[in-house]
Task: inverse folding
């Protein structure tokens, strides 16, 4: 769960508290820049909420950045999986050559 809003906002603090009580992986951020520190790719569902005074442009920016970050993480994960499959094939070939 991602809660967007000011850390000094009592409304945002209450939202964060309620969300955290229901979902251990709850993060409080003030801007999209803070998303870089959050691994979202392994989440099945990601909820977003925001404090009452959080500007709509910030919410939209966070949503768009989250979407981009998840797509980048998926691409990186696929690239890593492909690399590991190829490495495994190479190691198998090396073992066969050494056995001869």
Result:
């Amino acid at each position: 769960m991602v809660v967007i809003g000011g850390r000094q906002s009592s409304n945002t603090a209450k939202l964060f508290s309620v969300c955290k009580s229901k979902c251990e992986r709850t993060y409080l951020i003030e801007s999209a820049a803070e998303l870089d520190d959050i691994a979202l790719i392994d989440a099945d569902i990601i909820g977003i909420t925001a404090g009452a005074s959080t500007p709509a442009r910030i919410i939209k920016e966070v949503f768009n950045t989250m979407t981009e970050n998840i797509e980048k993480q998926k691409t990186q994960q696929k690239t890593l999986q492909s690399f590991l499959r190829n490495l495994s094939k190479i190691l198998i070939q090396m073992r066969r050559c050494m056995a001869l």
About this structure: The mean pLDDT is 91. Strands lie at 2-4, 27-29, 48-50.
